[in-house]
Design a protein that fits this description.
The chain is built from four helices and 56 strands. By secondary structure, it is mostly beta strands. The protein has a five-stranded antiparallel β-sheet, covered by helices on one side. It is globular and about 105 Å long. The chain starts with 6 loop residues before the first strand and ends with a strand. About 4% of the residues have low confidence.
Length: 705
């Protein structure tokens, strides 16, 4: 007979023995309650997997009538025993309102003490004497040595197959990032595209350029590769032999470029997001109509393999060339390279806000991608374990590889399957105000990392939003005595005082879709303005009498842009109306005297709505604008002009028909924050946030214990 299997779990300096209900930490047995031990067992048996509160309560307490407080208490006991900080967890991560996730890698071994052979007494092996016609024969009991060998053979016959099956089907140790090595050191924003092994290729500022940059994989300064092409280039992929790039020129004209000198040599069909197959013979790409196409690398034989609703992006071939994965609608999808078996991945993963930019490691063991978890302020690197065999299926549960303040923005697996190149961003800003006499920006409020600064109507208080956390604060007008008004449940953007100074309206960008909330300026629970609305809500401002709020829809170019117009809500009656002729307009602001509502039209040009005549005036100018902001007296309208990614200006004009004039030219350094935010103080001096963060390329070492 064999006893039931039991296991020993090891992580960090802790050993958990399932059979004995024992936890050993740094060689010392820990006191742990039975319920807490069972909670621990469930978590470590499901590493990197979200275990819901309901699952834990049902498994540990069964039919007993207990509340979530019992679970919370036992989680607290486990954290205290393990020395785990819930604010920076090493072991148990809280997924707010849902459950818990075990973070630390776990080593699993079978407990040899629990697998034993129970032998029958020797007497049971002796046959009973039976009379015979000629004689009585009584067999002798086997020798002690023979009994031992028989038992050993029987044990081996039973244990070895079971052990072999367990070995072939056991959970493989999850990958971890064991080391980080910085590649670049210039601090500028970068976007990774490809590597040929010794070199890494990237672009700057997430914009199309006439150069590509390369840097040695061992580290150093980036150098330029001049591009000779009929327009600005957006690089996408590199052929397996490292000889040519595929790129988008002028937005949607695909070309191949020689990697050695950047010369455009072969036009491909119109499209975007090109990706070269592992054998270098085929290019997959997308079209604006929502399809995925294949074309030979020589430009011949273009054909569509699938039609899709929406715009797919970030195409990636599997190393064997049989599958293509891509991002569609913030989710990762997969299909075979012949267009069949289209399906979405990670359909049951509810705590992910968005998934994108996936790539396989060189050996195909892991599929790496970027995602932002709901409630997090940064984007992290995750992996899907693709290792499988005849008896082991690939895991459907993603594994978190990074955790912390660094925001990871692009990734490229190296030729070495144990290395990932990724761009990491440390977000920090410095609040600065323009000195009108010297035309220089000076640190404001001590240079704290905040945006969304607005002074109260009486000038005694100020509100602002911490960056990058996006928490709302109220402070005295000089920045002293700050009081936090929101927590991690909200991601606050563009807060605005009510005319009486008692309330603050803001956009919560953590809601899906974005939603507007009102909170008391003295603190309390934020209240959603239109609870039943299912459309995107943004950029709210009060009417001068404080009775209504005007707000817009999706931002320029975002999904749903143009489907809604500028709307007005009466919070007292919850009635909503749309301004006539405002379809496709967004980012509205009500003038202090109530006469006008300024908004950005579908071309991103400033336009005024006359509330008296209920008509739109002609556009104020024909340049790409943003952040319309009224002066305190309503005589001037300030706004941003965006020429290129690193060429911005704050301008102003008199309303309604003044001539535009530049207030200050901005460099990219002073356009940090939510879409390049800027504001005004009580004297109409511009306030901006200076980018003090760092954006570098790193090499991450992927380890498997």
């Amino acid at each position: 007979m064999i006893a039931s299997k039991s296991f020993v779990f090891r992580f960090a300096d802790v050993t958990v023995r399932e059979r004995e209900f024992v936890v050993i930490k740094t060689g010392h047995v820990q006191q742990v309650e039975p319920k807490a031990f069972r909670v621990l067992l469930i978590l470590i048996q499901n590493p990197n997997k979200l275990v819901t509160k309901e699952e834990l309560l049902n498994s540990v307490w069964a039919d007993a009538a207990v509340t979530e407080n019992s679970l919370t208490r036992n989680i607290a006991l486990l954290r205290r025993m393990l020395g785990d900080d819930p604010r920076e967890p090493r072991f148990i991560e809280t997924v707010t309102g849902v459950g818990y996730r075990w973070l630390c890698p776990v080593e699993l071994v079978e407990d040899s003490m629990a697998v034993s052979l129970l032998q029958e007494p020797a007497e049971a092996l002796i046959a009973v004497a039976v009379p015979a016609p000629s004689a009585v024969v009584v067999p002798q009991a086997p020798s002690k040595r023979r009994q031992i060998w028989t038992a050993a053979a029987l044990g081996a016959a039973l244990i070895l197959p079971a052990g072999g099956y367990w070995y072939l089907t056991r959970p493989l140790p999850p990958p971890t990032v064991s080391a980080y090595r910085q590649i670049t050191s210039d601090g500028g924003e970068k976007e990774l595209w490809a590597t040929d092994g010794p070199r890494i290729y990237f672009s700057r500022n997430h914009s199309v350029r006439d150069v590509i940059f390369e840097v040695s994989a061992s580290g150093g300064d980036g150098t330029k590769i001049p591009i000779r092409a009929p327009g600005p280039v957006d690089l996408f992929d590199l052929s397996p032999d490292g000889s040519k790039f595929v790129a988008s020129i002028l937005g949607d004209s695909l070309w191949t470029l020689r990697a050695s000198d950047g010369v455009a040599v072969l036009p491909l069909p119109r499209g975007n997001w090109p990706s070269i197959s592992p054998d270098g013979r085929t290019v997959a790409y997308t079209t604006h109509e929502g399809g995925i196409w294949l074309v030979g690398s020589d430009g011949a034989g273009a054909h569509r393999i699938v039609s899709l609703q929406g715009n797919p992006a970030s195409l990636a071939w599997s190393p064997d060339g049989r599958r293509i994965r891509f991002t569609l609608g913030d989710h990762i999808w997969e299909l075979r390279s012949d267009g069949s078996n289209l399906h979405q991945l990670l359909t049951g993963w509810q705590d992910s806000k968005s998934q994108c930019c996936g790539r396989w490691t060189a050996d195909g063991s892991f599929f790496l991608f970027l995602t932002q978890i709901k409630g997090a302020i940064s984007q992290e690197i995750w992996a899907l374990d693709e290792r499988h065999s005849l008896l082991r299926r690939p895991s459907a549960v993603p594994i978190r590889l990074t955790s912390g303040p660094t925001n990871w923005t692009t990734l490229v697996p190296a030729k070495d399957p144990n290395t990932i190149y990724a761009t990491g961003e440390t977000q920090r800003g410095e609040l600065a105000r323009l000195d009108m006499s010297t035309q220089q920006f000076r640190p404001f409020f001590g240079g704290i990392s905040v945006e969304g600064t607005k002074f109260s109507p009486d000038g005694r208080s100020v509100i602002y939003v911490s960056w990058p956390e996006q928490f709302l604060f109220r402070a005295n007008a000089d920045g002293s005595d700050p009081v936090q008004l929101t927590d991690s449940r909200f991601s606050v953007s563009i807060p605005v005082w009510s005319p009486d100074g008692k309330q603050i309206v803001f956009t919560d960008t953590r809601s899906d879709p974005f939603a507007i909330y009102v909170v008391s300026s003295f603190g309390g629970v934020p209240k959603r303005v239109i609870p039943e609305d299912r459309e995107t809500e943004g950029d709210p401002t009060w009417s001068p009498d404080g009775k209504k709020i005007v707000f817009g829809g999706p931002t320029y170019g975002a999904p749903g842009f143009g489907d809604t117009g500028v709307r007005v809500v009466d919070p007292a009656t919850n009635t909503v109306s749309e301004l006539p002729g405002s379809k496709g307009m967004w980012s509205p602001r009500w003038s202090p005297d109530g006469r006008y509502i300024v908004a950005l039209n579908h071309d991103n040009h400033l336009q005024l709505f006359d509330t008296r005549t209920q008509t739109w005036l002609p556009p104020l100018q024909d340049v790409f604008s943003g952040y319309p902001t009224w002066s305190a007296d309503g005589q001037w309208l300030y706004y941003l002009i965006v020429k290129t990614s690193d060429d911005w200006s704050i301008c102003r004009l008199r309303v309604p028909d003044g001539k535009p004039e530049e207030v200050i030219h901005l460099t990219e350094q002073y356009t940090a924050g939510w879409w390049g935010w800027f504001g005004l103080d009580s004297a109409n001096a511009p306030i901006v946030m200076r980018d003090m963060g760092r954006h570098e390329i790193y090499a991450l070492t992927l380890s498997q214990k």
